[in-house]
Predict the 3D structure of the following.
Amino acid sequence: MQQNSFDTAPMAARVQNLTKTFGAGESRVHALDDVTIGLRRGEFTAIMGPSGSGKSTLMHVMAGLDAATSGRAFIGDTEITGLSDLDLTVLRRSRVGFVFQSFNLVPTLDVLGNITLPFELAGRSPSAEARRRIDALVESMGLGGRLRHRPHELSGGQQQRVAIARALATQPDLIFADEPTGNLDSRTGREVLALLAAASREHGQSIAMVTHDPMAASHADRVIFLGDGRVMADTPRQSAEAISAYMLSSEVGA
Amino acid sequence: MSAVVERPVRASRPRRLTRSLPRAERGLGASVLVAAISSGFGTLLIAATGFIGAWLLAAPYLAGRESVVVVVAILSALLVGVAMFVAAIVTTTTFATIVAGRTRQIALMRLIGASARSERVRVARQGLVVGAIGAAVGLIGGTAGAAALLPVARTVWGIDVEYALLQPVLVAPAVIVTLTTWAAAWAGSRRVLEVTPLEAISGATERNRSEAVGGRARRIVAGILFLGGSLVLAAGVALGLLSPLGVVVAFVGGIFSFTGLSLGATVIMPPVLRVTGRLFGRSAEARLAAENALRYPERSSRMAIGVVMGVTLVTMFAVASQSAREVLISSGGGEPPEELLSLMDTFAAIMMSLVDVSAVIAAVGLVNLLTLGVIQRRRELGLLRTLGFAAPQIRRMVLLEAAHLTVTSVALGLLLGVVYGWAGAQSLLGSVGVPPEFSSPTFVLPAIPWATVGIVAVATALLTAVAAVAPTRLATAVSPIDALAGD
């Protein structure tokens, strides 16, 4: 089932021989154990695995939020291993987008302020083109009438749509979504997943989604399973049933 | 306040519930300090007043000495009162902030079966303990200070009078401070009643609950006090054109109008803060800082009004004495007696240094507010770091937040101080003849003591820098992963 296009397709992000250990001696834990994967450009990838499988750590390292113990990490063609904090900050600001489980909007800013925040952090206002893109995003996310609302006036689904619009606004190389449906009811969760899938399909947005929900992963073009810090399987689109079956069998087999 | 600095911010990322306990204790340190300062100040001032009183009464040649003793007693009671008032404001705000940070813990207690009222009583009891500890420290410190200073006063001024330092009345400030801290903790913990058990199990979403901006009744009372007080103040100024007794009327008006101002702080301060926010420009960090300063309008306003009070009082004494000096100089057609001038200067200097205590208490509160604000915003700061805020930008944001509050309060305090100081001088001296006509009434121009203004400005910059040290350190230590860590 291993995909063989690793070297040919352009990569949104990749890691080579990534190892991450916590602690020392007896209590030493391998969060990541020699992981090598690439996330293809324009693809919606789900990273799955039980708690403690290393999926969050992998995402932190790939997004330049945490440093690996050994191995290399790239965003596009830029190697991020060993970049300074400031360089990483600028890189995240311009080339990586984030969607979180708990939405993480800035409570003091209204919807529009939250969406344009990445531009303002960079000290520039959105270009005319970016402005048009933001308008289209606001429209497609159904946030048109809510631009002046504060996050606490919105429902969970609306907040997550604002977060997605914020992530898409800068057209980053890659969007990391960390359990984006974890705090949503199943119907709202499906809507959010459909929005992510549409962004990938229609605008070629690369997305990496960390989740342990087979339903959520079934929306992705590709599913990577992690277990004990290693890649256990790497499959194209799967139904939720197939994903559940795989997870159950690996659980039983372990 | 500064006790916060040592704590490594991201030690092992323990769960929020356990983390909120030491965090709360840290905020309480400031309340102990505030209680200690105000009760120590009270003790010291009572001892000093008693000593001066004993000395004056022992001097048989001084005419009208009883009334002088009464005036000194009233003045020191007022000064202690102001310090305690500011301390109570600071404590109320501290507890409101602590309760906000403890929401999840309180919700858990509610979930397990505690009643909202019993939780609030628990918080208030902490206030009682904190107040008692601070008051005891202040009582001991103040008494020790008085014991050390009295012999100095005896030798320096050659005062030889019998005065027993240890008197029951010295305990009064400590008792009052304990009770006001208790009451302030009770007032500040009002929000405990709004915490529902559900908040312990609901998602990790942080609710940005808007704090109630005071009741309607309070706003009306504040408005009446302010308008009525201002009218009385104006009447005092008008009366002062005929008789020096106008100052008594003006004094009453001043107290009323300023009380109205403090009560109405939540109405007055936010728009003023907003104006200051515009001054900092439109950069992302400036805008976020401006919004943060207004996130909890009630807390910010209360804190700001504490600083305003201190600055107003200092400026008021400086302006009044400077204006009075100029009127005396021009009315006398030359230099008035040197003794009179130096007496006035000494009086103003003593009053200014004594009201400084209130300013210090307000500053402690400000530092504490900013620090707790940063601690409670870890997630959000982590988010900003994740989205691309560089560490220097975070530092600038927190510094601007501090500057926002200090600049606003100091500017307002200077303005009010000039108005009140001028009103005092005008109402006292408006009936004094001034050349060339030597006829009443006289218009006293408000004389701005630039030296004082300069000192206040420098103190503001210092306060801003000091207030921002601990919070900026904490804020820049937040790692982006803090935003992603679910709690």
